[in-house]
What does this fold into?
Amino acid sequence: TLKGPEQIELVRLRVSDLGFRNGATTEEIYRKAEELGLELCPAEVGPNLRLKYLDQPVGEYFWIAMKQISARDGDPRVFELGCRGDGLWLRGRWANPGSWWDSVFQFVFRLRK
It folds into this structure.
């Protein structure tokens, strides 16, 4: 989605850090982040971050706040980065505007230029 290489500053926040102590929908999270001066990440951030974040602790996972992309089945998805006992992974997680995210879930946002 980017026209060329770009230096991007990222921040990772829990849903509760955005003020949602009981969780929130994708739409609510994205709207609040924008109010706080954050932006959605270009889609390239997911794969790029997966290639660079090689020491991710087992049991840690987080999502890339991005414009959803359609999976083969047409469902809207965002990238999820995680590490389990079987290693590091990058996958798409279903994320329509009304999808619910618990307060402890973490998203990576782009800091506004």
Notes: The CA atoms of residues 37 and 112 lie 6 Å apart.
